[in-house]
Design goal:
The structure holds 2 protein chains of 2 kinds.
Chain A lengths: L15 H29 L2 H18 L2 H21 L4 H22 L7 H18 L1
Helix pairs in contact in A: 1-3, 1-4, 4-5
Chain B lengths: L6 H28 L8 H6 L3 H23 L2 H21 L7 H18 L9 H4 L1 H13 L1
């Protein structure tokens, strides 16, 4: 979670296509990171049970030896650095809330498609409310 | 979808919310003490690592990642994410009451929307039940984990 107030206040004007391409890149890599991480944790299984059986070290080994998890962390890192790149070219008051909001909405779609989660009406409403709420809060 | 959470798992979700927001606020407070870091003065980052606020913030964020992964191991992504969003609300409230920052009307509306969003999923089931076809992969995965553990 990165706060808009923690971003460098650099305002270099770029065109609308470049602006939204950068914001979409941040959101898409963040969604990929979240979905890959969640998929990896689903495959690994209940960490509480693993920790009870194999201890904290066993749980850490189970997580860090998952290629899907490592790929997810890589995507999160790419998202973080692309956000830093974006806020150096786009007004932070647009880039931070727009990318955070799109990430929440994108995750709902990606979780339904790739993780086969049952995204029912309650969860869609939650995603939409959080999408709007994060945008206003981070603005 | 029949899964509901035990009190211990609600505590993990609470840790997800609090560690992220408290960690961010501590980092923000620490970095204002350290001063601006520029490409020409990257050594300032090492100085930041000696600041107790920054160190505590980093420890909180490590705690966040651990509790976030734990939550994802027994709950859906679309269940956990609204909880992480609630961290934004905690950050805003900490900013107002601890750092004495101003919260605009837009932010109050944002807080209200996120609280409503979290409310939509809070009482619902936490995990999607998959058909047995998908569950067949589970014993193999568990075997791998158990094998590594031994």
């Amino acid at each position: 979670m990165i706060l808009a107030s923690q971003m460098p206040a650099v305002h270099i004007h770029s065109g609308p296509i470049e602006t939204w391409a950068a914001i979409l890149t941040v959101a898409a890599t963040a969604v990929a990171g979240d979905v890959l991480t969640a998929g990896a944790m689903r495959k690994i299984g209940d960490l509480d049970a693993i920790r009870a059986k194999a201890g904290l070290g066993g749980a850490v080994r189970a997580v860090t030896s998952s290629p899907m998890f490592l790929l997810g962390v890589l995507c999160m890192a790419v998202s973080f650095f692309s956000l830093l790149f974006t806020v150096s070219n786009v007004a932070v008051s647009l880039a931070a809330p727009a990318s955070a909001s799109l990430t929440f909405l994108g995750n709902a779609f990606a979780a339904k498609i790739f993780l086969k989660e049952n995204v029912n009406r309650r969860r869609w409403m939650a995603a939409l409310f959080v999408f709007a709420g994060v945008f206003l809060l981070a603005k | 979808m029949k899964h509901t959470l035990t009190p211990q798992r609600y505590l993990i979700l609470l840790a997800v919310m609090l560690t992220a927001s408290v960690g961010d606020t501590l980092l923000s407070h620490g970095m204002t003490q350290v001063g601006p870091v520029t490409l020409a003065h990257l050594g300032m980052l090492l100085a930041a690592l000696r600041n107790p606020w920054v160190i505590t913030g980093i420890l909180c964020l490590l705690g966040f990642f651990a509790s976030y992964l734990t939550a994802l191991s027994w709950a859906d992504l679309t269940f956990v994410l609204p909880s992480t969003a609630f961290g934004y609300v905690v950050v805003a409230l900490l900013s107002k009451f601890w750092l004495h920052e101003t919260i605009t009307i837009y932010r109050w509306v944002g807080i209200l929307l996120i609280v409503c969003g979290v409310g939509f999923v809070a009482n619902g089931p936490s995990l999607t039940e998959h058909k047995p076809v998908l569950d067949e992969a589970a014993p193999a995965d568990e075997g791998v984990v158990t094998g590594r553990a031994q």
